[in-house]
């Protein structure tokens, strides 16, 4: 089985979010970048397939040279080959176009992407890749098993779970549940050394336009101070929630 | 022209989110000087769609589509958009709509923006405001394609009445085998519980509760308020509560009217997921807990005393206001 894991290179969850150039650009100064958490769950599940069922695992990121440390980390976790599509990521459509070209080229059976990137939260790349390559698609995937050319996937729905079967090739939008938090791997010294020798192929972008563009960013209004209520005066809290906040 | 909205139903009746997206579609249609068409699957009738400004409903009746099927639904929605000549298609932020959104986008070559919070600031260029960085910021995004696809954030626009007559037509999309490459085998959903996605009130608890055996009071408080229960990430990682309850940047987003956080410190990753909730209440022993900076109302106190007392008082309040 040939697996491709799509890795989005995103600011660490503790990052302060600021903008520059008249609020038109995300300010990356001082920001630590990581593998998108949803993709880390997917990568770890891919390693499971590799070790337990036999599979090759490639990772891909669309982006400039600055994403390479993130790809190296994925190699250190255990991926075989990394691919960087050499163009800045503009929007979900443009990224999906680039990824689809890689998918078609490599003839992958399974493409593991994340439910969403925690930076722009588009939640659109995996479905677009599925539609562009004609693969089956399961989103918000929390469990994935593969037997021959059939996958059994569980998806999180509002208020529950749904189990489905799908024929390969398959694209998933994955998240926590694919593996547990405790299954995530921190690259060890040996992994890091080996990662240096693994191929990181830089491929040129296929021509693709975008469909949306960011005009400007803004930040939410600062919030007012909290109203404190004494623990022995909960009637006051109920009164505030009822009459002031109109929330109960 | 028209604006097409996908109105979700369950067992034949429209969900509340269907009326919110319909209200929004009507707002967009007014800006563009056109009207609103809806598409649904196996709906019994037009429900209250007319009340929220929908002029016609294209209903697809097909027993093969009894269970949600992202690929087939997306294909049908795209065909309805083409039949209508729709320039704008509106969907919700439910798990199902997010699932089919990107497929619709590819079918229609329509630029797609999700997590939209307001009506477009301009329709030419078509520019919408959306949340980014898990609610830590907004982006004004222009869609440059001929047809536009908008995913509306939950509870961002609300219900707006605009009564009209809604005519119901049946719509028969032509679907193919490819649309059925994913087959739903079973759905496991607690029907007697309010879901986090639909809830007006969410009662959420963290590691301050000490252990899963103490969740009885959390469930009772949720019960009194008709609320859904939720939790912080460590609580689900520890297996105290199911994963589906984990909210935050790496869990579920919550956009309820009221969010009550009990024994949750208020880490940045937790707060990111609940920023779009309207009113936030925190109960925590530590007055320095970061949650107090993010909350509207706070009680500094021990959950094991405050929560039972709050349950009693709320019961009395409900009885008096019934
Ligand atoms: C990549 C990444 C992603 C993450 N994503 C998420 C996410 O999506 N969601 C999320 O929630 N977290 C997330 N986290 C974890 C986050 O950083 C915090 O660790 C977590 O939110 C803390 O959970 P907590 O508040 O329940 O526990 P703690 O931080 O242990 O806080 C417990 C709180 O309970 C209070 N308390 C103790 N006893 C009582 C009592 N008797 N009565 C009342 N209060 C009491 C304490 O004062 C304290 O404030 C993420 C972390 C990382 C690194
Ligand atoms: N620039 C990128 N390169 C590779 N994969 C990406 C990129 N952007 C997004 N993805 C994948 O698509 C998923 C969803 O991203 P998004 O649609 O941007 O929310 C991510 O979790 C990744 O798996």
Automatic annotation (TrEMBL), chain A:
SUPFAM superfamilies per the record?
Answer: Adenine nucleotide alpha hydrolases-like
MF terms from GO for this chain are: electron transfer activity
Domain Electron transfer flavoprotein alpha/beta-subunit N-terminal stretches = 23-212
- InterPro entries per record: ETF_a/b_N, ETF_b, ETF_beta_N, Rossmann-like_a/b/a_fold
Cross-referenced Gene3D superfamilies: HUPs
Indicate whether Electron transport appears among the record's keywords: yes
Pfam families per record? ETF
The source's domain of life comes to: Bacteria
Keyword annotations for this protein, in alphabetical order, are:
Electron transport, Transport
Family statement:
Belongs to the ETF beta-subunit/FixA family.
Q: What is this protein called?
A: Electron transfer flavoprotein subunit beta
| Species name | Nonlabens dokdonensis
UniProtKB/TrEMBL annotation, chain B:
This protein's cofactor list reads: FAD
The entry's free-text remark on the cofactor is: Binds 1 FAD per dimer.
Indicate which residues the UniProt annotation says bind FAD: 207, 263-270, 284
In this chain the Electron transfer flavoprotein alpha/beta-subunit N-terminal domain maps to 3-184
Q: Which InterPro entries match?
A: DHS-like_NAD/FAD-binding_dom, ETF_a/b_N, ETF_a/FixB, ETF_asu_C, Rossmann-like_a/b/a_fold
What keywords is this UniProt entry annotated with? Answer: Electron transport, FAD, Flavoprotein, Transport
A single MF term (Gene Ontology) = electron transfer activity
Q: Name one GO biological process term.
A: fatty acid beta-oxidation using acyl-CoA dehydrogenase
| Xref: Pfam families | ETF (PF01012), ETF_alpha (PF00766)
Q: Which family does it belong to?
A: Belongs to the ETF alpha-subunit/FixB family.
Q: What is this protein's record name?
A: Electron transfer flavoprotein subunit alpha
Which organism does this record belong to?
Nonlabens dokdonensis
